[in-house]
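Researcher: Quick one. two chains, 1013 residues in total.
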Amino acid sequence: MAKPPPSIVKRSIYSWIMGPNTKLQLVVLVLIAVTVFARVLPLEMQKRIVNEAIRLRQVDLLIRYCTIYLVSVLVASGLKYLITILQVMISQRTLTRMRKDLFAHIISLPLGFFRNTQPGLVVSSLVSELTLPSNFVGMAVAVPVINLLTLVAFAGYLFYLNAWLAALSLSIYPAVVFLVPLLQRRANQANKERVDVTRDLSDRVQETISGIHEVHGNAAYAIENAKIGRIADQLYRIRLRWDFFRASIKVSNNFFISLGPFLIFILGGYLTIQGRLELGALVAFLSAQEKLYDPWKELIEFFQAYQDGSVTYEKTMRYFDSEPEFALAPSDRAPYQLEGNVDVKNLSFITGDGIRLLDRISFDLKAGQHVALVGFSGSGKSTLALCVGQLYDYTDGQVLLGNAEVRELTKKDMAWNMGFVSQTPFIFDGTIQENLLYSCRAADDNTPAAAEQFRPSLEDMIEVLHQTGIFVDTLRFGLNAMLDADRDSTLVEQLVKVRRNFRRQFGETLSGFVEFFDEDRYLYHSSVAANLLFGTSKRRDFKTAKLAENPYFIAFLEKADLKRPLMELGADLARQTVDILGNLPPDKVFYEQSPIAPEELDDFKLLAQQTRRRKLHQLTSDERHKLLGLALRFIPGRHKMVSFPDLLERLILEGRFLFKNQIIEDYPGAFAFYDEGEYIFSQTIQNNIFFGKPKTTSAKAQDHIVQNIIQLLIEEDLLETIVGIGMQFQVGSKGDKLSGGQRQKLAIARVFLKSPRLLIMDEATSALDNNSQARIQNFLDRRLKGKTTVIAVVHRLDIIKDYDKVAVMKAGKLIEMGTYEELMDRKGALHGLIHGKK
Amino acid sequence: MDSSTEKNSAGGTCEFQQNLEILRQTQFFAGLPMETLKVFAYLCTRESFAAQDCLYDKDDDDGQAFYILSGQLVLVHDTDGGEAVIRDFGPGDFIGGLALLAPMRRLFALKAGQATDCLVLSREKFAKAIGQFPELIPRVFKSMADSIRDWDQQRLFEATEKGLSLKDMVGISAI
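Model:
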């Protein structure tokens, strides 16, 4: 068997230089050799142009040498470009590889590692820190070789022309490249002090201003002035020092660069006058002298990159230099399919600090038995569950799952046989369906055995949605989705039918919850724009977002006496919303009831200011359009920060009829007005069924509505279709568009879908309401008993009666185990727990 | 639902202003600066309940606080003999402040005794908003501690007045 490659954290930074980059680096070397030659050649040409072509007045020679010069310069530049590209390629390839390898390594590390590691640190390590080492790897061959070779070649050539002058030319730059960084370091030091003292100054000023009452009360002006004065003086001195070093750097750079030609002229000129140096050679020296600067500079920069890169690399790799506790997957066999019996023998778990979280615990479960672990917080019940589930590595004793030692199993073996639901389950960005399939996809390794077990059908998925009680939630997501006019034509017809039945059966009872679309009434739960248009248009310029810029529409508003009052409303909305939300972060909670989106807030802040200072007609037309646009979004039932004048309401209602008449005349067919017989594609499925909009966002009311709709959907055989659409709902980053209960149900559902032989639930139903909890408990009792072994950490003691066994833990020890009745009869620890005695 | 408030204004004052006025006079929020109160007033929603509607059930962790605008809410305890009303609340009462501070399963159920309009604030909104003003958290705790103490004091006063035994009946503020 081939030796596995060393873990990334054990690799040295140098191992990245060649390795997979060897071929590219060799190409770089070849290119460098040619480049260096192409760099020296122009010097020789310069010499010959002066000495031969100009002196002998030979135009053909001039042309020939100039051509060679030009070609050399072109070749050198072209190759330098290629080398840079290759360098970037090597560096980026290395970065990508380092990132992937390090990420794969990090996520395989034991859970304990992450207790002391902030996610931010992992992020910065992967995102920013690795760029320095990879930059170095990109440079590692190209930069030193090309610059050293250039220096050597130039030096060789110059020494060949004149040794004295060569030595002098070469001696200037080391002075620059060493002196300047020295000054730079001092400047950086001064800058750091400047930043510290500036911060100190601002803290002090802030303190004085915050305590201004006290200053006035005590007339302590002199004391405060002295405090600030001292720091200001200190800042002055540091600032001077900083500027001094900065200026020194600039001046010495310029000085040395100008000094070079001077030295060449004085010594070279003298030698030329003496006839010991040709004029052409002097020109070559002048030109070479200038070109020596870059290689020196690049070498110094390379050294810096090496230092930064290797230090960062070392630090990063050392930080993550831990080993995974378990192998990730078996290399020479298929994952085991284990029986569900669990044997725990003398199990102990001692933390790194020597705290004994589990103390010699022994018990056994037959396949399909259910045990509830109970006890106070900190009694070790979660730790026990995590050890059995291989999430922690126990320090002593044995855990056998289907007679196999859990510690010896790979993570894949566990994924095939165990399902784990944690107390605070994590839901990832993506759709409900993607999250539902998360556990199955993770276990699926594309073998026939896996395909059979871990590729559930749509029916399977819908079934677990039912079992875990998230079916109605998913249905609701589906009902809140919009349909596509091109794709869903048959569905649309059925939905219009559902609408009719809905109106007939529930129109009366649900009128308190739903605002039906009614041509003669103002819709308080729709926007001003929707109230005016009362329909949808396929024309782009009549889309709501564009309305405020549509000249036709604005002219209509003017005619309907609506433009000015709407701008007033917009201004009022902007001022109030900005006043409330001004300093709040762009969180969904804060913006749910706002007509302004988070990204627009800054714009509207300025605009709100303008409306305070100037009259509406003094605003620019762009500003007025923005206010108008804001007013058109106003939904009185949702945006409660301004009042909605009765007069405006009546004007809008009249405007609705005016607009309809006008548009039918001017653009016949451009609008589809709300019609009970037609599907409205700009509205959600639910609003279509209602032919209206819900008046409330309260969960209880929505449940009530959905319960009524379900029956109608079943009649039309649409239930699964809508749930299918709901499963495509995007749950948001970390599932933040779901409630805590929904996240927990989804987490349980994804594990149920895998049908594991061992199910570990760590207070998995703690965020659920009574009904949901009872539903899941019922499913465990009725459907899983005898099939799936369940270890449930339970906080609420009212659900443990039907477990086969109850295990009571205290201070890391298992103090009682038996059936609920046995333990209650014994009047021991469980009895105490249930009756609230400690 | 929402029938009285969906238009969002009454007598020219918008709902937000009305909410602000209410919160200013509620002990739980009193003492918070105007800037913060505005955020809470903005985040509150209004809900209407029909008689016998259940606002939350025993063992729910609904995490809501209610201010009664009109109507009546009753706190109900299930006993073997049926439901026993423990307490009732009327217009101007604010209930559920404790549920805003931390997850808590309800010991009793809350029902509408008659058609009732409420101002509702959820724990999620409260937590997000107070998180923006962390320096105010101690004030919220203080106001909660104050109401527990006031309540205990009231019980003590009543029990002493009526000459009842104090044993195990008062002292909750000593927890």
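Residues 221-273 of chain A form the longest helix (53 residues).
Researcher: Thanks, that's what I needed.
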